[in-house]
Design brief:
By secondary structure, this protein is an all-alpha fold. It has seven helices and no strands. α6 crosses α7. The N and C termini lie far apart (129 Å). The relative contact order is 0.06.
Length: 226
């Protein structure tokens, strides 16, 4: 009986000592994480209020950026989006600190990579917003110019200009997120080649009569000079 008690008592005491030694780290990690979550929610609220005071969402609606997302079935709330990004950024930071206290190196490294990727997400969002703004601006300029020149297909030409910018913007955002960059580059090259070929064919087929007249006139002028 004494031998059995000694055999069981030794491992149990070692396990208890391990738990007691690890307990401060566990409590410290939980405390750090909870503080980080509280700070993250406070900063999210601050960001949303600051964006609301700056009337950024009203500006986005005025510039027709919000309507573009609504057509795609998405409701854009810039304050809420930035607040969400800030909240999760600091929650992940708190998780990194907690896992570092616990000595979970692999989890810490993974979360660190996630934090480093967040700026790419922010830049991609900015690229999309800037592309939508530029697309709307170019659409209005092209439409006004074509209508002022009293040419046909103002809506078609302005729409093509706008969607060309939106497509290039979407590709740029995907490249920024490092999502299939090689495939995006191939598609971008193919799209440019397709537009160039389509433009060349349109000009060649549509303008061949004018080109023929111009060459005949040039030939007559050269002959008269002789």
């Amino acid at each position: 009986m004494d031998f059995t008690q000694e055999v069981l008592q030794g491992p149990l005491l070692e396990l208890w000592d391990t738990i007691v030694a690890y307990l401060p780290n566990l409590l410290g990690a939980i405390l750090v994480f909870l503080v980080g979550v509280v700070v993250a929610h406070i900063l999210r609220t601050v960001v949303v209020k600051v964006i609301k005071l700056l009337r950024v969402d009203a500006l986005a609606k005025k510039l027709e950026i919000t309507s573009q997302f609504e057509r795609a079935g998405l409701r854009l709330h810039i304050g809420g989006l930035l607040g969400w990004i800030v909240k999760w950024f600091f929650i992940i930071i708190a998780l990194i600190a907690a896992t570092d206290i616990l000595g979970w190196d692999q989890v810490t490294d993974y979360l660190s990579q996630v934090v480093l990727f967040i700026p790419n997400v922010i830049i991609a969002v900015i690229i999309l917003l800037a592309g939508i703004l530029l697309g709307n601006f170019v659409q209005n300029v092209v439409k006004s110019s074509v209508e002022a020149a009293k040419l046909e297909s103002a809506d078609f030409l302005s729409g093509v200009a706008k969607w060309a910018i939106l497509v290039f913007t979407f590709m740029a955002a995907l490249v920024q997120l490092d999502i299939a960059p090689e495939l995006i580059r191939v598609l971008f090259t193919g799209l440019v080649a397709m537009l160039a070929l389509a433009g060349g064919l349109a000009f060649g087929l549509g303008g061949k009569d004018h080109a023929h007249k111009f060459l005949n006139r040039l030939k007559k002028d050269i002959s008269s000079e002789k």
